[in-house]
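FW: tagging you since you asked about this chain on Friday. Here's the raw sequence from the shared folder, copied in full. Didn't touch anything.
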Amino acid sequence: MSSSPHVADVLASAVSRGRLWPVRRASAEDFPALVELWRRSVEATHDFLLPGDLERIGAEVASVCLPGVAEVWLSEASGRPAGFLGCNGPHVEMLFVEPEFFGRGVGGALLRHARRRHGALRLEVNEQNAGALAFYQRQGFEITGRSALDNAGRPYPLLRLAWRG
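HL: got it, structure written out here
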């Protein structure tokens, strides 16, 4: 029995580190929980943010970033989001994982899902986020460029990465 592409997308999953991480398309109803996940993830990894930027960027994530990205995919554990990925075609706009699931395969499962849909991916990562850079390099990405400022002109250098497959 074959399923339609839409059903296949919704039911997509990936096995990572011995665990099945189901991936489904997020809806607008998921966004408040994803913003909270984003905040916890950033608090655990972005100790370089200037005072006040966490709140400002969080407001942008809730009002502009999540609603403005073409596709948002999430993986769940025990009925709540464990991680999410937002992309516009092959450009990964955001990938965040709940801190308790760091190193457990959630991010890799989400990236594999995006690669199955879009092929070779590209993204930016904060230069100061060494853990995220190491994660992306383990996933097969390489540095292709650098920007001294983030996309909003803030003093957070970005590294541009591309999946080398």
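FW: Confidence is low (pLDDT under 50) at residues 1-16.
HL: agreed, and The longest helix spans residues 53-68.
FW: great, closing this out.
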